[in-house]
């Protein structure tokens, strides 16, 4: 249990990423797209339940950082993998992990073309958003923020309505 509490935020960030890899692998090997929704929903629910461990601990308050992890990363520029939660980011993490299963359920019947890509990008977006909310180092924040733009671009491209009359003369 000590390992889990020491690495809880890293687990929260990496679980949707590994879940996206699992969804992609499931789609490649078994080609059953009907199960992709259930697998993605299960991954996001498990991530929400893990985030409730943050809520269950009475450590989190408005002053100071909790579940802090500071690991040297790039020594030449003095950058660390430094993550933690405070009073505000705690609620943002809980809210993000709570909304993701709702987002999947709300698109349950709406996604018809390429559901694998859609759900993989949703999981990658969740990982990047959680990384943005818990990062305490500026470079780590920047990398997570930029990483969130990639799945967001593809989700907007996928869901965006193409209006050909906007481009006609």
Number of helices in the DSSP assignment: 6
Tell me the overall shape: globular
Distance between the termini: 64 Å
Strand content: 5-15%
**Strand order, largest beta sheet:** 1-2
- Mean pLDDT, all residues: 87
Low-confidence segments: none
Biggest sheet overview: 2 strands, antiparallel
User: Topology as H/E string?
Assistant: HHHEEHHH
Secondary structure: helix percent: 55-70%
Computed structural class: mainly alpha
Number of E-state strands: 2
Radius of gyration: 18 Å
Question: How would you explain this protein's 3D organization?
Answer:
It is a single chain. With about 170 residues, the chain is mostly helical. Helices cover about 65% and strands about 10% of the residues. The chain contains six helices and two strands; from the N terminus they run αααββααα. The chain has a two-stranded antiparallel ribbon with strand order 1-2. The longest helix is centred in the first third of the chain and has 23 residues, at about 35-55. The chain starts with a helix and ends in a 10-residue tail after the last helix.
What's the arrangement of secondary structure elements?
Layout: H1 2-6, H2 8-29, H3 34-56, E1 66-74, E2 79-85, H4 87-106, H5 115-134, H6 138-159
Antiparallel strand pairs: 1-2
């Amino acid at each position: 249990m000590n390992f889990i509490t020491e690495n809880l935020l890293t687990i929260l960030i990496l679980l949707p990423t590994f879940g996206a890899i699992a969804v992609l692998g499931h789609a490649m090997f078994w080609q059953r797209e009907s199960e992709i929704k259930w697998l993605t929903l299960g991954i996001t629910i498990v991530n929400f339940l893990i985030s409730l461990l943050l809520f269950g601990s009475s450590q989190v308050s408005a002053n100071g950082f909790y579940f802090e992890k500071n690991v040297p990363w790039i020594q030449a520029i003095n950058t660390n993998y430094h993550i933690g939660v405070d009073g505000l980011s705690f609620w943002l993490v809980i809210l993000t992990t709570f909304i993701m299963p709702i987002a999947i359920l709300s698109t349950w019947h709406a996604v018809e073309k390429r559901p694998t890509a859609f759900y993989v990008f949703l999981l990658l977006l969740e990982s990047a958003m959680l990384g943005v909310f818990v990062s305490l180092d500026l470079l780590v924040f920047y990398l997570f923020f930029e990483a969130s733009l990639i799945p967001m671009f593809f989700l907007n491209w996928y869901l965006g309505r193409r209006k050909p009359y906007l481009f006609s003369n």
